[in-house]
Write a structure and sequence with these properties.
- The protein is mainly alpha-helical.
- About 30% of the residues lie in helices and about 5% in strands.
- The radius of gyration is 18 Å and the shape is globular.
- The N terminus is likely disordered.
Amino acid sequence: MIWDEDREQVDLPRYYSSREQGFTPAVRDQGYYNTCWAHAGTACMEIGMIKHGMHQKYANSAEEFALSVAHGLYYSFRPVADAFEFTSDDVKVNKEKSVPVDTMVNRGSSPLSIGSAVLTWQGPVLEEDFPTVEGLYSAALDTLDNREKAYENSVAIVTEVIEYDEKDYEEIKKAILKHGAVSTGYRSGGGSYSSKYYSHYSPDSG
């Protein structure tokens, strides 16, 4: 038993699956790029929009609905000042402009970075409006390096990004039940990475 925002009791089901409820979009391959964080943040928005029926304007089904991973990734590293210039003096807006595209797709980050972009109205946009080009992020991003693309064709206005304590299982379950998904991330040392298989592993278990 948990409580929602209005302090009403909410019964959690013994079992829940957003996939079985039809709220999940098609799975996309990030290739060998370190962009799991961008995929996670974007998928979270996709699932939330699908669960609340917001995708129906843009796609015939959940599997056909796709937001641009490249757009969120790009403007996480190269944010621009908002149209009213309210953020023109922000440190992040000014310090990241020189980040090369190749660095963006290999540096790694957090799903919250996607949130920082969309909270300033920079997206989200549909995949077709800012194509990821089958994982070739550099090709897509290098052709769209301009201010206008940050604010064109947004399909939603994101007003908040909620960060939960990693051990607050009740709140996390409630968020999944309400919005369809949450995203998570982790940071690992270089010793657990296999360049042969492009994957991380546990040194203890192999």
